[in-house]
Amino acid sequence: MRTLEGDPEWTASVERLLRVRGVRREQVRRGQVLAAVGGQTAHRRFTARIHLLPAADGGRGTAVATGYRPQFYLRTTDVPGRLELGGSGSAQPGETVEAAVELGRPVALEAGLGFAIREGGRTVGAGTVLAVLD
């Protein structure tokens, strides 16, 4: 593999052109990750620290509860998911909580990955992956 500019460093948010023999354009979707064999893998479940924005900052005006199903934006992909909140089973706007998340499809995940939580076209929260569960 060689880069077009001769720069061997590939980092997030830097666009690169990569040709992979035997892979058709329609097999590749926005948000997919290219990783070395044995490297990062796709998962559906993880624990996260989540901060819900207060209504004054564009967040929800009401609490969320276990079963809440927003969109999760991870890197450049969005995927529906479901929150499972421990303790009281709910969280108010402005609160930071730990929760389990189950995504609608597998996504490349690792501890420390940040993500946005969106609902109805607006960002209502943000989070960080604490641990991958499966």
UniProtKB/TrEMBL annotation:
<dbReference type="GO" id="GO:0005525">
    <property type="term" value="F:GTP binding"/>
</dbReference>
<keyword id="KW-0342">GTP-binding</keyword>
<feature type="domain" description="Translation elongation factor EFTu/EF1A C-terminal">
    <location>
        <begin position="41"/>
        <end position="132"/>
    </location>
</feature>
<keyword id="KW-0547">Nucleotide-binding</keyword>
<dbReference type="Pfam" id="PF03143">
    <property type="entry name" value="GTP_EFTU_D3"/>
</dbReference>
<dbReference type="GO" id="GO:0003746">
    <property type="term" value="F:translation elongation factor activity"/>
</dbReference>
<dbReference type="InterPro" id="IPR050055">
    <property type="entry name" value="EF-Tu_GTPase"/>
</dbReference>
<dbReference type="InterPro" id="IPR009001">
    <property type="entry name" value="Transl_elong_EF1A/Init_IF2_C"/>
</dbReference>
<dbReference type="InterPro" id="IPR004160">
    <property type="entry name" value="Transl_elong_EFTu/EF1A_C"/>
</dbReference>
<dbReference type="GO" id="GO:0005829">
    <property type="term" value="C:cytosol"/>
</dbReference>
<keyword id="KW-0648">Protein biosynthesis</keyword>
<keyword id="KW-0251">Elongation factor</keyword>
<protein>
    <recommendedName>
        <fullName>Translation elongation factor EFTu/EF1A C-terminal domain-containing protein</fullName>
    </recommendedName>
</protein>
